[in-house]
TrEMBL record:
Residues 9-84 form the PglD N-terminal domain. It comes from Jejuia spongiicola. InterPro entries: AcTrfase_PglD-like, Hexapep, PglD_N, Trans_hexapeptide_repeat, Trimer_LpxA-like_sf. This is Acetyltransferase. CDD domains: LbH_AT_putative. It comes from the Bacteria. Belongs to the transferase hexapeptide repeat family.
Amino acid sequence: MKEPINKKKVRIYGAGGHSQVIKEVLEKNNYLVTETFDDKPEGVHHASKNVSIGARKSLANFPHSGDPVIIAVGINSERAEIAEFLKCDYEKAVHHSAIISDTSKIGEGTVVFAGAIIQPNSTIGKHVIINTGASVDHDNVIGDFAHISPKAALCGHVEVGEGSHVGVGAVVIPKVKIGKWCTIGAGTIVLKDVPDYSTLVGNPGVIIKTKKPN
Ligand SMILES: CC(=O)SCCNC(=O)CCNC(=O)[C@H](O)C(C)(C)COP(=O)(O)OP(=O)(O)OC[C@H]1O[C@@H](n2cnc3c(N)ncnc32)[C@H](O)[C@@H]1OP(=O)(O)O
């Protein structure tokens, strides 16, 4: 079949539900998804077609060079692990309805979904997920591999450390610093700084566990 002309090409690493959202954003932005990879056959979404085996089992045989890649894996630690072993160029995916200030920066491999807003002077790291309708206000710093879930609201001057997950509908008041590899539960109200590796839930948010890295 003849490939359509004038399309930018991209590959997607991950073929689950999150991958479906990224694929749609890319296709609406005039990209052609040339290949999809996945390491876990059981995680493949029913709508994913022609999925190739990922790099985990045979790193040497993986086509590292070629079209740029987006790592479409929702679990932050897995996205970080995959980015560690891939030697690819990365693409970004920004839904056309997202509003991103001209003075904010977005790192490689990062995705910004429908209705998300990123206000001025914010810095979003690499391989970050800014999910549907999330609000990242001015002067935020979001670390690599973080995930800001749907409808989460980060006020001004908030920091979110590497790999941290801010759950759906969570609220973070101004100037709060969330450490690295934290989990902020769904609907949590974060009123003060959160130490690394904490899981915080409730209103006001309280730490229910601390998981040190393996
Ligand atoms: C497009 C998408 O789908 S994006 C996906 C976005 N995903 C999310 O936002 C999910 C966020 N995850 C959560 O909120 C989870 O409940 C977590 C991660 C905070 C906790 O999960 P677990 O570690 O499995 O904890 P567990 O379910 O055992 O709960 C521990 C305690 O915290 C409470 N708790 C858990 N989550 C919350 C919450 N969000 N708010 C208030 N209390 C909570 C539980 O009721 C339980 O209380 P108990 O000990 O009195 O019974």
